[in-house]
Amino acid sequence: MADKPNLRKSDLNWQKGLSLLMLLVLLLASGAEARDRKKKKKMDPDKGTILLAGLVYAPVNESDGGSTIADGIGGVVGAKVELVGTGLVTETNRNGMFYFTKGPEGPVTVVISKEGFRTETISSTIEKGGGMPESLRVELLPEGTEYVGRTPTGMGTLYVAFSPRVVEQSNPQTHWDKNLNTVRAAIAAGADPLTLEGNRGKPITDPKGKNYNPTSGAESTIMIYPPKSPSRTGFHNTSAAPYWLCFDRTGDTLYVANSARQVQVLDAANGNRIIHNLPVQQGGFVTDLSLSADGKYVMAAVMAASPGVMMIDTATKQPSAYLSVDGVGTMTPTAVATSPDGARTFVVLDGQMGLGGKGMLAVIDSYTGQTVGTVPVGSKPTGLTFSKDGRLAYVVNSAAGNVTVIDVATLQPLGLIAVGVSPQKITLTPDGKKLLVTNKGSATVSVIDATANRVINTIQVGNGATDVKLSPDGTRAYVSNREDGTISVVDMSTLNAIYVTDAMPRSSPIGIAVRP
Question: How far apart are CA 227 and CA 251, in angstroms?
Answer without folding.
Answer: 16
